[in-house]
Protein backbone atom coordinates (compact mmCIF):
# COMPACT_ATOMS: atom_id res chain seq x y z
CA UNK A 1 0.00 0.00 0.00
CA UNK A 2 1.22 3.48 -0.88
CA UNK A 3 0.64 6.82 0.75
CA UNK A 4 -2.72 8.43 0.01
CA UNK A 5 -2.23 12.16 -0.52
CA UNK A 6 -4.75 15.00 -0.60
CA UNK A 7 -3.52 18.57 -1.18
CA UNK A 8 -6.35 21.05 -0.61
CA UNK A 9 -6.74 24.83 -0.76
CA UNK A 10 -9.85 26.82 0.15
CA UNK A 11 -10.60 27.13 -3.59
CA UNK A 12 -9.80 23.67 -5.00
CA UNK A 13 -8.06 20.32 -4.75
CA UNK A 14 -4.47 20.56 -6.07
CA UNK A 15 -3.68 16.83 -5.89
CA UNK A 16 -5.51 13.66 -4.97
CA UNK A 17 -3.85 10.29 -5.43
CA UNK A 18 -1.21 7.85 -4.23
CA UNK A 19 2.53 8.25 -3.91
CA UNK A 20 5.64 6.36 -2.82
CA UNK A 21 7.20 9.33 -1.04
CA UNK A 22 6.47 13.02 -0.49
CA UNK A 23 8.92 15.85 0.20
CA UNK A 24 7.66 18.95 2.02
CA UNK A 25 9.00 22.50 2.57
CA UNK A 26 8.77 22.59 6.39
CA UNK A 27 9.22 25.68 8.55
CA UNK A 28 12.41 24.09 9.97
CA UNK A 29 13.64 22.69 6.64
CA UNK A 30 12.75 20.14 4.00
CA UNK A 31 11.48 16.74 5.20
CA UNK A 32 10.23 13.57 3.56
CA UNK A 33 7.36 11.20 4.34
CA UNK A 34 7.54 7.50 3.45
CA UNK A 35 5.11 4.62 3.88
CA UNK A 36 4.34 3.73 7.54
CA UNK A 37 5.63 7.08 8.85
CA UNK A 38 4.76 7.89 12.46
CA UNK A 39 1.78 10.23 12.90
CA UNK A 40 2.71 13.90 12.70
CA UNK A 41 1.47 17.43 12.12
CA UNK A 42 3.81 20.09 10.76
CA UNK A 43 3.76 23.68 9.49
CA UNK A 44 4.74 24.26 5.88
CA UNK A 45 6.33 27.29 4.30
CA UNK A 46 6.28 28.60 0.73
CA UNK A 47 7.85 26.12 -1.66
CA UNK A 48 7.21 22.93 -3.60
CA UNK A 49 5.73 19.65 -2.46
CA UNK A 50 7.49 16.93 -4.48
CA UNK A 51 5.30 13.87 -4.98
CA UNK A 52 7.00 10.66 -6.15
CA UNK A 53 4.23 8.58 -7.74
CA UNK A 54 6.57 5.69 -8.53
CA UNK A 55 6.65 6.60 -12.23
CA UNK A 56 7.59 10.27 -12.02
CA UNK A 57 7.82 13.27 -9.72
CA UNK A 58 5.13 15.94 -9.58
CA UNK A 59 5.81 19.40 -8.13
CA UNK A 60 3.00 21.23 -6.35
CA UNK A 61 3.70 24.86 -5.51
CA UNK A 62 2.22 26.14 -2.22
CA UNK A 63 2.45 29.38 -0.26
CA UNK A 64 2.41 27.61 3.12
CA UNK A 65 0.02 25.54 5.20
CA UNK A 66 -0.07 22.47 7.42
CA UNK A 67 0.32 18.74 6.84
CA UNK A 68 -1.13 15.84 8.83
CA UNK A 69 0.15 12.27 8.49
CA UNK A 70 -1.72 9.31 9.98
CA UNK A 71 -2.02 5.65 8.91
CA UNK A 72 -0.46 6.27 5.47
CA UNK A 73 -2.93 9.09 4.78
CA UNK A 74 -1.39 12.50 4.18
CA UNK A 75 -3.55 15.63 4.13
CA UNK A 76 -2.21 19.08 3.27
CA UNK A 77 -4.23 22.23 3.89
CA UNK A 78 -2.40 24.80 1.78
CA UNK A 79 -2.76 28.52 1.16
Question: Overview of this structure, please?
Answer:
This protein is mainly β. The chain has no helices and nine strands. The radius of gyration is 11 Å and the shape is globular. The termini are far apart. The model has no long low-confidence stretch (mean pLDDT 95).
**Rg estimate, integer Å:** 11 Å
Distance between the termini: 29 Å
The computed structural class is mainly beta
Beta-strand percentage range: over 45%
Oligomer: single chain
Arrangement of strands in the largest sheet: 2-1-9-8-5
Percent range of helical residues: under 10%
Secondary structure blueprint with pairings:
Blueprint: E1 3-8, E2 13-19, E3 21-26, E4 29-34, E5 40-44, E6 47-52, E7 57-62, E8 65-70, E9 73-78
Parallel strand pairs: 1-9
Antiparallel strand pairs: 1-2, 3-4, 3-6, 5-8, 6-7, 8-9
Amino acid sequence: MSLILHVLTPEKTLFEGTSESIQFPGKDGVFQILKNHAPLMASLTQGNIIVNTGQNNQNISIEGGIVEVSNNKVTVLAR
